[in-house]
């Protein structure tokens, strides 16, 4: 390898690692460290972003749409910016050959590696999506990419701690017991699902010329121009449709989450209905904790609450739309259905065990 290229590659790696560590420290690690003490002392991390103190969401309207979009945007804009920077930085700074060696395998070991890499990110499903786009562009296999995406939310250490202090450690145990097979099991199944008719394998992608990474830049000036270009393309491609779907979900809250009270009990149809609604809806990181806390306080059954705890974080309609060009819609729909299944299972376990 030429000395100049080796030197440039070292600088690129250093820049990416600095961005990842400093960005996550500022956006995630340090703020969540403080919130953990609040959760321990107050047994709360804030109001439900879904409906506040009310027993139902506001009626569908432009005001309801804008109100939720603004509240949600205020909570996630820093993480979304970091996700876009990391997703574009992966493509501009990190050689595709390295990503392929680390996460290009369709083995279970590759899926485990992807899941473990996602845990420190602690991003919400939409903020992690641009990073997944970058990983796929750099030849990461479907399984590790899916495991990375899901582990950001479901094995988020901060959220697990918040859940324990706010809802109870039995809720954290239930979440961990089901999240491990969700993250690594669905990641592994995503690799099995990756066929020529669905998400092509890395070899098939290469043979078809799909998602072929650009040649490696040889100067930092070229790297910088490429990074800006990729960041702009990702932003203009992903963000507009993302905003539109968030607005629509904000307006439709009252239809997706009807009046919350004791009438929503342990019946199986409520567990299924709330599992589906939670899978479709979009929330910021750890937003499910105050949502479930508020709903339990209003008298909702344990089963539907547990279903929401498992389905609100991992996927959402906006995040699936963002990944529509990186993972096939067949795979995304299968993942959505599987997440609903895990939510229903959580609800049935919680209801049968009489959790409080």
Structural account:
This protein has helices at residues 3-42, 62-93, 96-103, 108-118, 125-137, 142-154, 157-166, 169-193, 202-208, 220-251, 253-256, 268-280, 288-297, 302-311, 317-322, 329-353. It has 356 residues and is an all-alpha fold. It has one domain (3-353). Helix 1 packs antiparallel against helix 2 (62-93), helix 4 packs across helix 8 and helix 14 (302-311) runs antiparallel to helix 16.
Number of strands: 0
Low-confidence stretches: 196-211
SSE-based structural type: mainly alpha
The structural domain count equals 1
H and E order: HHHHHHHHHHHHHHHH
pLDDT averaged residue by residue? 90
Strand content bin: under 5%
Return Rg in Å.
20 Å
Main sheet specs: none
Through-space gap between termini: 61 Å
Estimated helix fraction: over 70%
Shape: globular
Give me the number of helical elements: 16
SSE map:
Layout: H1 3-42, H2 62-93, H3 96-103, H4 108-118, H5 125-137, H6 142-154, H7 157-166, H8 169-193, H9 202-208, H10 220-251, H11 253-256, H12 268-280, H13 288-297, H14 302-311, H15 317-322, H16 329-353
Helix pairs in contact: 1-2, 1-7, 2-5, 2-10, 4-6, 4-8, 5-6, 6-8, 7-8, 8-16, 12-14, 12-16, 13-14, 14-16
Quick overview:
The protein has 356 residues and is an all-alpha fold. The chain is 73% helix and 0% strand.
For the structure shown, list the relevant keywords:
356 residues; mainly alpha; 73% helix; 0% strand
């Amino acid at each position: 390898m030429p000395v100049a290229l080796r030197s440039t590659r070292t600088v690129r790696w250093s820049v990416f690692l600095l961005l990842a560590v400093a960005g996550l420290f500022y956006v995630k690690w340090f703020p969540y460290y403080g919130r953990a003490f609040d959760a321990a002392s107050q047994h709360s991390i804030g109001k439900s972003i879904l409906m506040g103190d009310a027993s139902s969401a506001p009626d569908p309207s432009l005001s309801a749409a804008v109100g939720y979009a603004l509240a949600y945007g205020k909570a996630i804009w820093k993480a979304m910016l970091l996700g876009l920077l990391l997703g574009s930085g992966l493509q501009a700074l990190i050689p595709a050959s390295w990503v392929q060696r680390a996460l290009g395998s369709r083995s279970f070991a590759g899926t485990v590696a992807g899941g473990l890499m996602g845990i420190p990110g602690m991003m919400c499903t939409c903020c992690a999506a641009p990073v997944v786009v970058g990983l796929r562009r750099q030849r990461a296999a479907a399984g590790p990419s899916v495991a990375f995406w899901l582990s950001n939310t479901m094995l988020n250490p901060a959220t697990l701690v918040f859940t324990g202090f706010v809802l109870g450690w039995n809720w954290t145990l239930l979440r961990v017991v089901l999240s491990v097979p969700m993250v690594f099991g669905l990641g592994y199944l995503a690799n099995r699902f990756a066929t020529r008719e669905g998400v092509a394998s890395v070899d098939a992608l290469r043979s078809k010329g799909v998602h072929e990474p650009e040649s490696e830049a040889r100067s930092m000036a070229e790297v910088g121009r490429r990074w800006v270009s990729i960041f702009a393309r990702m932003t203009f491609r992903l963000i507009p449709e993302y905003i539109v779907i968030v607005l629509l979900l904000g307006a439709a809250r009252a239809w997706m989450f009807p009046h919350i009270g004791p009438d929503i009990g342990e019946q199986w149809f409520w567990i299924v209905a709330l599992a589906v609604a939670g899978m479709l809806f979009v929330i910021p990181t750890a937003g499910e904790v105050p949502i479930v806390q508020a709903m339990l306080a209003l008298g909702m059954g344990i089963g539907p609450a547990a279903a929401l705890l498992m389905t609100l974080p991992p996927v959402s309609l906006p995040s699936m739309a963002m990944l529509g060009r990186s993972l096939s819609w067949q795979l995304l729909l299968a993942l959505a259905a599987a997440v609903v299944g895990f939510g229903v299972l959580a609800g049935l376990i919680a209801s049968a065990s009489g959790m409080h």
